[in-house]
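This part of the workshop introduces the protein records we will be handling. An example says more than a description, so a record of this kind follows:
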Amino acid sequence: MDQKITLGIGIGNQHWPWDQQIAWWKGAEELGFESLWLNDHFHSLGDNIDNPAFECSTTLAAIAMATSKIKLGVLTYGNTHRNPAILAKELLTIDHISGGRVIYGTGAGWNEPEHAAYGIPFPSAGDRVAMLDEALDLHKQLEVEERVNFEGRFYKLVDCPFQPKPVNGRLPILIGGTKPKMLRVIGKHADIWDSGLEPDEYAVALTTIREHAVEFGRDPMAIRGSTGVWNGKVDDKVLADKVRAAYKAGARQLLFRYPPTRENLDEVPRLMQTIMPELIAELEG
């Protein structure tokens, strides 16, 4: 897999009215970002959970209609939030709406109060990881088989018809997580791993993931590292240091993340036009 640097942007689907958010999402493509990431929360985050919060799959479908080039994903779906076959149907629908631009971003799920608020069961950490592993096995069958029969510990499908298939044959998979059991699941399934670990810890975890990939007969270098480098703070030197450290640790997808306050967004065009091209040329040169 190509290990060149790509730039993504996370613009959470909470805290602001729809008209303002859609303008930011559409603007991300115009700024030259190569991927756009929502998140999967049913209420807003932080101290005030009563701000606007839009459901991510339906929002992603709207963004697919409003853009033409940028890749689209969720960082990350909580696997516990939906039946994985239903989520696969949502993703494949958006993949066709977008012309094949969807990345399947997923994780084990973590927000216990949110699960309680919406009546979603919250299994143990070990079960949540095992559920994610099984859901990804199921997803891979859905991508290739005309009718799917699946009987696992957590999920069961009986003669399940599943059309259409992904536009490009399969959906790339991004997984977020850092615990040892998760690193093994990431090594088994992921095309992209995302984490906010500090650079030294990040490098160790990425090495571990790639060792697991070899155990599963995969090309370890086909797994791309992803991490955040900007979250609204304006300091060009800090940004440059973060980019260099992330690259050294093995990250090749570098993410800007719009903060809930949307502070300093007027700096993003300058950073994308001047600072980031210079840094990418330095690191790839």
Observations:
- The two ends are 18 Å apart (CA to CA).
- The longest helix spans residues 125-144.
- The mean pLDDT is 96.
